[in-house]
Amino acid sequence: MSTPAQMTDDDFVLLHIERDAGVAFATIDAPPINVMTPALFRELAKFSTHVADDDSVRVVVLRSDNPDFFIAHFDVTAILGYPTDGEAERPTEHAGFHDMCERYRTMAKATIVEIGGRVGGGGSELSMSCDMRFGAIDRTVINQMEVPIGILPGGTGTQRLPRLVGRGRAMEVILGGVDLDARAAEQWGYLNRALPADELRPFVTALAYRIAKFPPHAVALAKQAVNAADELPLREGLFEERYLFQRLLRTPEAMPAMEQFIELGGQTREGEMRVADLTGEISTEG
User: Fold this and answer.
1) Could you tell me the pTM of the whole model?
2) CA dist., res. 242 & res. 74, Å (int)
3) Is there a cis peptide before residue 202, judged by omega within 30 degrees of 0?
């Protein structure tokens, strides 16, 4: 097997990779229910390294063509084989599943998850590690099924979920092992939006292409600044924001993009009335 840096899209079996206009779409294909087997985990981890190092990719989209499942959960039969001899050890650095999730969370490009069906366990933990999650009304269901089977969400779930939905709601999902439907997941903050099923993929695709058009340094450092909000006290976070703003002013894309904004009608009444559409016309290409 080639190293991640040498891999091509053809090296993936359970992920179908498509690239277009700065977006890498990874479609999970592990029938019948997209259980995250060790093989699928390895491909998702290798893909994260592969795409994080690819400067031509600005946005990553994870999705599934299975209408009922994004990822069911991590393979329980694999967990049954984990060694249990000796005492449990407290780690001192990220490894394995945590390392993969952190890579999706911190890579210098946007990571989006399109959850068109059920997602649970490790699939939910991977989803929560990405920047944005979108679901389908009456199809998307989230479940953390670990506590009912005697374990806990050990792939970042106990840390990610409270930060997304709050402690009490996280306890309901984790300790109760209950289903969370798309509308509740949107209201609680797990999903960015819950959309009609036939609108989910077009919306996610359009958003990915939109972000991929923007100055890549701005996307990367804005993501870094937002991540700092989880990692730093407010005072230090504000210092980090000011520092990253100053760095962006010195990138080659910033001045041309701001000039485009003015040329397209920014800071005019007509332009500001359609500012989202106007900024969508800004591109660093060409």
Assistant:
1) 0.93
2) 40
3) no
